[in-house]
Write the structure tokens for this entry.
Amino acid sequence: MKTRRTLPVIVGLAVLSILAACAAPGDAGAPVTQGTTPASPSGPVGGTWVDVAVSGDVVTMPLSLVEEKVNTHFSVTGTDRRLDFMAYVLDGALYVRANACPPCRSRGFALDGDVLVCDACATMFKARDGSGIKGACVDYPKADAAYTVVDGVVTMSLADLAAAYVETLVRG
């Protein structure tokens, strides 16, 4: 009698252990380090809005923040208007692009593998070069912004960010 009750408990615990192991996040959030590429997260990664530091014309953010979140969005004020950007890690490389979809007025993109997907209209863009793939806003590629990384800090100029933003607003 005791054996009949023990067996279902053992089987149940074994099944729970297997399910827990399958659900573990693994290395998806592992930091990007030189010479290594973390496992890509499965499915789309929505943008996480983060704060950046602005001092004069210099905008900075910790690279570790982008590595941790995979897909970040941030805003700066330039020429008396808010300019939105995204910084994301794809296959170990950092990308900084204007975060705007002019026709649908979206300010958000998910990173789905190597594709950026507009949160509002679902237009798809190549994450590596910002060019359109398909969708209503495909003619508005996401321009990249110049940046440097020194000692784990991503540094951008407001002028370079503004230029990338203006370029994204132009049909091309």
User: Anything to note?
Assistant: Helices lie at 2-23, 63-69, 158-169.
